[in-house]
UniProtKB/TrEMBL annotation:
Transmembrane segments: none annotated. Pfam families: Dimerisation, Methyltransf_2. One of its GO terms (biological process) is methylation. InterPro entries: COMT-like, COMT_C, COMT_dimerisation, SAM-dependent_MTases_sf, WH-like_DNA-bd_sf, WH_DNA-bd_sf. It comes from Leptothrix cholodnii (strain ATCC 51168 / LMG 8142 / SP-6). GO terms for molecular function: O-methyltransferase activity; protein dimerization activity. This is O-methyltransferase family 2. Gene3D superfamilies: 1.10.287.1350, Vaccinia Virus protein VP39, Winged helix-like DNA-binding domain superfamily/Winged helix DNA-binding domain. The lineage of its organism: Bacteria, Pseudomonadati, Pseudomonadota, Betaproteobacteria, Burkholderiales. Keywords: Methyltransferase, S-adenosyl-L-methionine, Transferase. Residues 120-330 form the O-methyltransferase C-terminal domain. The keyword Magnesium does not apply. Residues 20-97 form the O-methyltransferase dimerisation domain.
């Protein structure tokens, strides 16, 4: 019996869709290799003929032509075969792989196809144990793996700058931010978000706080943004005491890196650093109560699994964040929607419980 004849048209379509999903890894690698080779930069500089491009990238011409066909199928470039062996040009998507593109994603493509790829290869181990790949293999927690690998640390922070740039302008306009005072960006990397906040609000001053390998490139980045004179760059451990007092603590894509216990400790340090009437802004993607087949839900669940395999962290629901905030002596004031499925959770210190005196005794 031919089982194909027993399948419905809907089942055959579902099977074809699943085949595409299973094979989706090829796009990550094709785009990642294009970024590592600097293909977009070469094409933008006028090297468009395939053989010339192969020489510029030190690649086999035939194999490079096959990669270019794949990139054309992904909409990253256009490939026109001619008597010269083919010429290519960049699409608007491909332009974003240029290292000098305004919203470029070259570093992110490299990071996702190399360092992130390596830990995703053992998702099974993380699902079985609840621990990240690095925790299980090397006993490393958080960002310990970057301490002894300057090249990877530099690529990681470039990747974070690129991703933050996609949402920084929108976040800088958030009504949760004041127009004056001091704002500290915890785990702010090279300072992309803080720079955009300060550009949007001239009355604010900033403190950038992160590990040594993060702040190494911060000064140059802040100078380029034109806000360096308004920022104090400090390296340190945000599980310890923080500079204080500050009016705003920014925590963008920080808490999702950590388990619940560590996240509470970070929030406690943030609360302790607040001036009277200060606020903590937690900027994260909120896990929906019910996940559906929607682009925003795919983004959040992909990030959640990435936290599982990479750092041992997680994405959380609004209720989860309420519990963390409460444990840290904070309470949520409001939640504001932001770009790219992010939310801004504005939290303030809980009022201390009023002490009651002994009961009055009537005589």
């Amino acid at each position: 019996m031919n089982t194909q004849t027993l399948a419905t048209a809907e089942q055959r379509a579902a099977a074809r869709q699943l085949v595409e999903l299973i094979g989706g890894n090829w796009a990550t690698q094709a785009i990642g290799v294009a970024a590592r080779l600097g293909l977009a930069d070469h094409v933008a500089s006028g090297v468009t003929q395939v053989d010339a491009l192969a020489r510029a990238c030190a690649c086999d011409a035939s194999a490079l032509h096959r990669l270019l066909r794949g990139l054309a199928a992904l909409g990253v470039l256009r490939l026109d075969d001619d008597d010269d062996g083919g010429r290519c040009s960049l699409t608007p998507t491909g332009e974003l792989l240029r290292r000098d593109a305004v919203l470029g994603l070259n570093a992110h493509a490299q990071w996702w196809s190399q360092q992130a790829w390596a830990v995703w290869s053992d998702l099974m181990g993380s699902v079985r144990t609840g621990q990240s790949t690095r925790q299980r293999e090397r006993g490393q927690k958080g960002f310990d793996h970057l301490d002894a690998d300057a090249e990877s640390a530099h690529l990681f922070h470039r990747s974070m700058v690129e991703l933050t740039r996609l949402v920084a302008v929108d976040l800088a306009r958030s009504p949760a931010l004041p127009d004056a005072g001091v704002v500290i960006d915890l785990g702010g990397g090279h300072g992309e978000l803080l720079a955009e906040v300060l550009r949007a609000r001239p009355g604010l001053r900033g403190v950038l706080f992160d590990l040594d390998h993060a702040v190494d490139g911060a000064q140059a980045h802040l100078r380029e943004a034109g806000v360096a004179e308004r920022v104090t760059v400090t390296s340190g451990d945000f599980f310890a005491a923080l500079p204080r007092p500050v009016d705003v603590v920014l925590l963008k894509s920080v808490l999702h890196d950590w388990n619940d216990g560590d996240a509470v400790r970070i929030l406690q340090r943030a609360r302790d650093a607040l001036a009277p009437d200060g606020r903590v802004l937690v900027i994260e993607r909120l896990m929906p109560d019910r996940v559906e087949d929607l682009p925003a839900h795919r983004t959040t669940t992909r990030s959640d699994l990435n936290m599982l395999v990479g750092l041992g962290g997680r994405e959380r629901t609004a209720e989860d964040y309420d519990a963390l905030l409460s444990s840290a002596g904070l309470s949520r004031r409001r939640t504001l929607a932001a770009a790219a499925a992010f939310s801004v959770i504005e939290a303030v210190a809980q009022a201390p419980a009023r002490r009651q005196g002994p009961p009055c005794i009537k005589v």
